[in-house]
UniProtKB/TrEMBL annotation:
It comes from Halotalea alkalilenta. GO terms for molecular function: phosphatase activity. Residues 339-391 form the HAMP domain. GO terms for biological process: signal transduction. It comes from the Bacteria. One of its GO terms (cellular component) is plasma membrane. CDD domains: HAMP. It holds the Pfam family dCache_1. Keywords: Cell membrane, Hydrolase, Membrane, Transmembrane, Transmembrane helix. The lineage of its organism: Bacteria, Pseudomonadati, Pseudomonadota, Gammaproteobacteria, Oceanospirillales. The chain crosses the membrane at residues 314-337. This is HAMP domain-containing protein. Its main location: membrane. PROSITE patterns: HAMP. It is a multi-pass membrane protein.
Length: 664
């Protein structure tokens, strides 16, 4: 008779078989996971390395910036640079030497405008107080090597950082400087210098195998590299040396990827842009971060395989430790299975066999504190807990349902309040719109906010000699845009009062000044305004146009002429220039002004914007219709083109037909 295998042996065989079956897929999955982890760690390490070196550069430049601020603020500095005399010279030398020691600066310089003298204090040019103070050299505006001094002083409004090859010192230098004024007059420049080779060596220290840190300028020239033969160390900003350029190290097919990484890093300073490239015939990950202080970029190239090779001993030890732990775990699991599973099963079997023999007293162990008794007690307790939990759950669901209904009611009340507020805001916004446009200037307007209120509005201002009409597209839409329209209307009314409606360009310039005066401390907010203004003389046959990023479209005899406005909106970070365009109208002509919400509206088969070309064609077709019907035709054409797509922005279209505009 064949002896059946016991449960103990079967369990051991199952555990062994399961380990063997799981070993192969575990190895495959483990290899894939390790590969993914290695790649991710390589990316993270490249970013960390790039960020670390960028922070070192920023810290060193910040120190030199503070040195320049303190030196420029010393009374002796401005006194000596304005009028040269021994007492102020000695005081300047004391201040410069003290600050150089405090900030551990190798070089401190001063430049006097009056005589173009350049003074340098360093280990080789320490000023001797027993001898007359003498400059290192006299700057010459005709020498290209001195152009950085004159360039700084031409725009002497703040801190300047220059990275150049200094022909006088025959070194690649970083000059950090500030202008100095005396009694409001620009008298010179002071600051400190950093020798670039030593600075780069300090910034790129602690390099581990598999990591190649580099510094490049915006043209891609290598300014720092572990291989000194690749470094372009004698070129000034703006030059391009392909033989010592990062692009020459990248496969030609991937140079566009490198260019995109450089552009993105410069666009978002402080962020690290990672790309996978073939660099010097090796697959590597590069991390690029902009260094705004130097107008350079930090690049870290990581070779994941070399990093793995460098960590191979550590990985072998980790693998050995993991296998040891796994073996110990299997042994522990076998022991626990025997103690916690097999022994209770044997007792349960004995009790079941006793009951099967009719020994009802065998039920007694169920009341004792053995495994089977605990299981019976646990089951009873579990049933009781389930009953209790069910009751508690029903009560909790009821309470939560009531709370949810209450919350929904609160949300409905809040929605009603918000809806009433927006309705009131719409009423207020419509109150600033002209009500006599059609009767006063023979015009019509299509005004479609994207939401119930918007950032577009139009205006009409009447004067004895004519009237001024226009449209204004404020930044934003919805409630913020509507509030901007209130502010914009007030500023335009003030500007018209100061400049007069007959000069639209002056109105735009004055409004831009008022915007900057009122909102200059809120540069983080979108406060720009696109404006188109048209002055119509009282005879209705001549006018004057000026725009800020909005154009005028003049239709005469079925032909549409586009008159462009200024390139920049009002409130732009750079001031715009606005000029009047003199216009004359024949017996019949129409002037159209529209916000960019119409031109940018997506639609059509490809989902492209409406665009200028399609808009001009629309005006040519509408020219044969009477004024009200032509505006209706334009609105229908826009809706047809949109074909169910959401309105992207606020839309305003204003049309004026030439003719007598005398008061009616």
């Amino acid at each position: 008779m064949t002896t059946a295998l016991g449960l103990r042996i079967k369990l051991i065989l199952v555990l062994l078989g399961g380990c063997l079956l799981a070993l192969v897929p575990a190895l495959i999955v483990g290899a894939l996971v390790i590969e993914k982890i290695r790649d991710q760690l390589s990316v993270d390490y490249a970013r960390t390395q790039t960020q670390l070196i960028a922070q070192r550069v920023g810290a060193r430049i910040a120190e030199r910036r503070q040195l320049a601020h303190q030196l420029a603020a010393q009374p002796a500095t401005s006194a000596w640079l304005s009028v040269e005399n021994p007492a102020s010279a000695n005081a300047f030398v004391d201040d410069a030497t003290r600050l150089a020691d405090d900030f551990d600066a190798d070089k401190v310089f001063a430049y006097r405008i009056a005589d173009r003298s350049f003074y340098l204090i360093d280990s080789n040019h320490r000023l001797d107080r027993t001898a007359p103070l003498s400059p290192l050299y006299q700057a010459n505006p005709l020498n290209t090597e001195d152009a950085w001094l004159f360039g700084l002083l031409d725009t002497s409004t703040g801190l300047r950082i220059q990275v150049i090859f200094d022909a006088h010192l025959e070194r690649q230098m970083i000059w950090v400087s500030l202008p100095v004024r005396h009694d409001g007059r620009l008298v010179g420049e002071v600051g400190s210098g950093i020798e670039l080779p030593g600075f780069i060596e300090e910034m790129l220290r602690e390099r581990r195998p598999g990591i190649t840190p580099m510094l490049i300028d915006p043209q891609g020239n290598l300014r720092a590299h572990p291989d000194a033969s690749l470094v372009a160390d004698r070129i000034n900003p703006g030059y391009f040396d392909f033989s010592r350029n990062l692009y020459s190290l990248v496969a030609p097919a991937q140079r566009d990827l490198l260019s995109s990484a450089i552009i993105e890093a410069r666009r978002y300073p402080g962020s690290q842009v990672v790309r996978a490239l073939n660099l010097q015939s090796r697959d590597q990950l590069i991390s690029v971060q902009s260094l705004p202080e130097l107008n350079w970029l930090m690049v870290s190239a990581v070779a994941p395989q070399e990093l793995s090779d460098a960590d191979a001993p550590w990985f072998a030890y980790l693998s050995l430790a993991t296998l040891s732990i796994l073996a110990m775990l299997l042994i522990m699991l076998g022991w626990l299975a025997d103690r916690l599973l097999l022994n209770p099963l044997r007792l349960l079997t004995a009790s079941a066999q006793s009951i099967a023999r009719g020994e009802f007293r065998a039920n007694a162990p169920l009341k004792r504190r053995d495994e089977l008794g605990q299981l019976s007690q646990a089951f009873a307790q579990m049933a009781e807990r389930i009953r209790n939990h069910t009751s508690d759950l029903e009560r909790t669901v009821s309470e939560r349902t009531q709370a949810l209904e209450h919350a929904n009611e609160e949300m409905r009340r809040a929605h009603r309040t918000l809806d009433e507020s927006i309705g009131y805001a719409r009423l207020l916004q419509r109150a600033i719109l002209p009500t006599r446009l059609e009767q006063r200037v023979n015009g019509a307007v299509l005004w479609r906010p994207r939401e119930r209120v918007g950032g577009d509005f139009y205006l009409l201002h009447e004067e004895p000699g004519g009237c001024l009409v226009g449209i204004i597209d404020c930044a934003g839409h919805g409630v913020p845009g509507a509030m901007m329209t209130m502010l914009a209307r007030g500023l335009l009314d003030r500007a018209i009062l100061l400049a007069g409606g007959a000069d639209p360009a002056s109105v735009l310039t004055e409004t831009d000044r008022l915007v900057r005066l009122l909102l200059d401390e809120r540069r983080g907010l979108a406060t720009e305004m696109d404006v188109a203004l048209l002055w119509l003389d009282a005879n209705g046959h001549s006018g004057r146009f000026a725009g800020a990023k909005l154009d005028l479209f003049l239709e005469r005899d079925g032909q549409v002429i586009r008159y462009r406005g200024g390139r920049r909106p009002l409130g732009h970070r750079r001031r715009g220039e606005y000029a009047n365009v003199e216009l004359s109208f024949p017996a019949r002509a129409r002037c159209y002004m529209t916000s960019d919400g119409l031109l940018d509206q997506a639609g059509g088969e490809e989902g492209f914007g409406f665009g200028i070309k399609r808009f001009v064609a629309l005006l040519e077709h509408a020219s044969t219709l009477p004024l009200p019907q032509s505006l209706t035709y334009c609105a229908r054409a826009i809706d047809d083109y949109r074909a169910g797509l959401a309105q992207r922005d606020d839309i305003t279209l204003l049309v004026i037909e030439s003719g007598d505009i005398s008061p009616r």
